[in-house]
Each structure stands twice: as structure tokens, then as C-alpha cells.
Amino acid sequence: MTEHRIATIDQLHKEKGFEAEINGREIVLWKVKNKVYCIDNKCWHASSPLHYGDIEEYDGRTCIVCPMHKYIIDLATGEDILVMERKGLAKIFNKKPLLDIG
């Protein structure tokens, strides 16, 4: 896997996603509870920019709530966790947090 230096830990927050672009791909990073998550910045449903969404816990899972249609996406798996019949899957870079700083 190729390493890309995108941001420092101090630049990452739970309250607002950190937007970046790697090889033409728009991504967003958050630091939540000493873990860094990275997914595509566009919701798989309607391409809404996810960096505007809220980070929330659902059933012990760290999720992003899409600001447009309120889809709830697990940051670790990319799954839409509330409505499985939608069969949505956001593109994620890793199945685990990119970095655990705890």
C-alpha cells in the first residue's frame, strides 16, 4: 500500500471532517476516540459531501450521518447500518481505523 502524508493528527477532529484528494479521489478523515477513519467524501447514495455530516455512535459503532438524506454509514465497514435493504456500501480505505493513537 502506498503511503500518503495528508494531515497531522492535530488537524483531525470529530466535529469536522478533514478533506483531501489523493490521485483525483476525494476523501475525508476524522479523529474519533484516538482513532483515525478515512472514507470517500461522497455518499454512495447521492454523492453528498460527507465531511459536513455528524459523527455519532450507533450500537457501539462509530458512524457518519450523511447530511443530505441521513443515511448512517459505519466508518469502519462502510455499511449503511440502519436500513440494510438499501445494500449501500461506502468506499473505505481500510477495514480498520487507519491509526490508533490511544
From TrEMBL:
Name the UniProt record assigns to this protein: Rieske domain-containing protein
A GO MF term: metal ion binding
Record domain Rieske: where: 4-79
Assigned keywords, A-Z: 2Fe-2S, Iron, Iron-sulfur, Metal-binding
Listed Gene3D superfamilies: Rieske [2Fe-2S] iron-sulphur domain
Keyword Iron-sulfur recorded: yes
Cofactor field: [2Fe-2S] cluster
Keyword Nucleotide-binding set for record: no
Any Pfam family matching the protein: Rieske_4
Native source organism of the sequence: Sphaeroforma arctica JP610
